[in-house]
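Researcher: Quick test of sequence recovery. Tokens follow.
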């Protein structure tokens, strides 16, 4: 299958709606973040959006980005789309001159494996940040840029 990945101009209603729809289908119990904040990517298969990712500045660590969300529709998993989205985020983060990206996974071994394959390392957040970020099952990731 051929997939195209684009940095989405979510300040345009059409693209904000596409990301919001994908988010609702993949994360029905999680509040959709503000679509105009940060960088959003959409992956297309032919004319159909099938995956997305989001990255924004983090409030926890200065000069760091947060790779906050990635989702791939079930029919399109297994084609390396999460890894491609991570690579795109890493490239844009370097363009922002951030020193690192951070992220997290909770009970998601497939995503954790992608972080490891892409050279991210597990880390333990500062205690004051951990209290507001994740739970006892959350694994935290960092990639120096």
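Model:
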């Amino acid at each position: 299958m051929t997939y195209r990945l684009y940095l989405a101009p979510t300040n345009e209603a059409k693209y904000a709606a596409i990301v919001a729809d994908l988010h609702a289908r993949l994360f029905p119990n999680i509040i959709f973040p503000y679509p105009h904040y940060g960088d959003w990517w959409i992956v297309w298969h032919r004319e159909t959006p099938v995956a997305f990712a989001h990255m924004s500045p983090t409030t926890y660590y200065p000069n760091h980005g947060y790779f906050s969300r990635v989702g791939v529709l079930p029919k399109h998993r297994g084609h390396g789309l999460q890894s491609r989205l991570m690579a795109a985020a890493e490239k844009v983060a370097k363009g922002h001159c951030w020193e690192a990206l951070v992220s997290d996974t909770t009970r998601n071994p497939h995503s954790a494996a992608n972080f490891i394959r892409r050279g991210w390392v597990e880390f333990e957040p500062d205690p004051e940040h951990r209290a507001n970020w994740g739970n006892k099952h959350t694994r935290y990731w960092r990639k120096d840029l």
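The beta strands are 3-8, 39-45, 48-57, 64-72, 100-106, 121-122, 138-144.
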